[in-house]
Amino acid sequence: MTDGVRGDGGGGSGRSGKDEPRRPAALLRWGLPRDHRAMEHVITFVVLTLATILVTRLFLLVTGYPQVGGDGLHIAHVLWGGALMVAAFLMLLLFIGPVVRPAAVVVGGVGFGLFIDEVGKFLTDDNDYFYEPAIAIMYAVVVAIVVASDLVTSRRSRAPSEDVAAAADIAVTGLVGGLSVRQRAVAVELLERAADRSDGAAAAVAGADEVRALLEALPSDDDELPDPVRALTHRSADAARRIVSETNGWRIALWGTAVLLAASVVVAVTDVAAALNSGVAFLIVVSGLSLLASWVLWFLAQRAQRSDGGTTARSRALDLLRGAVATNLLVTQVALFRFDPWQATILVVVGMVLLVVEWAEQQRRHAEASGA
Q1: pTM of the model
Q2: Using one digit for the tens of pLDDT, what is the confidence trace for 260-292?
Q3: Three-state secondary structure of 257-319
């Protein structure tokens, strides 16, 4: 049975070095290979969603909440959001290949932001746009999207056949418009990764040789649709790498996380009275427990960094630090959004920046360890 038939699954080390179990994963049996840029697209989608919500609410606040329409009509921005989401959906239905996806991510992210911003109107009998828990609900929905997507993409290691499928997906664009240098390089890298994961036997992955031959036969053409997702993520990554290369990335990550957690404690304490008056004191309990867990992870990270365990211990320290920030973002801030959405928004932005810095520091350490 070939690797192209076997699914992914992060099988144990007792499988002769193979990463895939013998039985194919359900997604692969159903013909659903995962996009190698899936989380990149999802993160950009939710960032644009949150940014759209913030910009919309600030615009309405500054302009005095104007209404579009007249004579008893009010064209709510939920309709514009729905229209943009339909446009993004149609883009994905009308065109094949990976080139259209970043554009659909942008259009869909803005549309979803406009759509969910009015969730308060649809949860209250008086159509209350200013329904207090609305911001917390929006943030919880965004968190759920990220967590669910991460479970799909990271629950199992990628199969070699998925990398070959991704390379073939890129080749689709070259059949009609030629391949840019960047697209060709990405596709070749995916094929090489597939070969590495199948013990160097590229032919073991069904179609790998054919895809490689197709890529070599396609003409070159650097005219392609702009990729705003790649521009955003790569610029963010480059900025983070400059920070950790010019200064002490570990100190920024460690003490930045401490500041985030301390600020979250202050906000949670100031929200105790509001929680008691609103009858939702359990949210303060949730935020308190999650903050306690985050602080425990922070102290463990500091201890692991100071130990003499070498590269493994330092890598574990960064993993613990990321866990502290992730717990704060996924649990603590969901509760705090209920009482002080603006302060919680600032803390979320700080947390996301810290995650990028911690990722860049991890990449720097890997490069040092490999002698790059």
Answers
A1: 0.76
A2: 999 999 988 887 777 777 767 777 888 889 999
A3: HHHHHHHHHHHHHHCHHHHHHHCCHHHHHHHHHHHHHHHHHHHHHHHHHHCCCHHHHHHHHHH
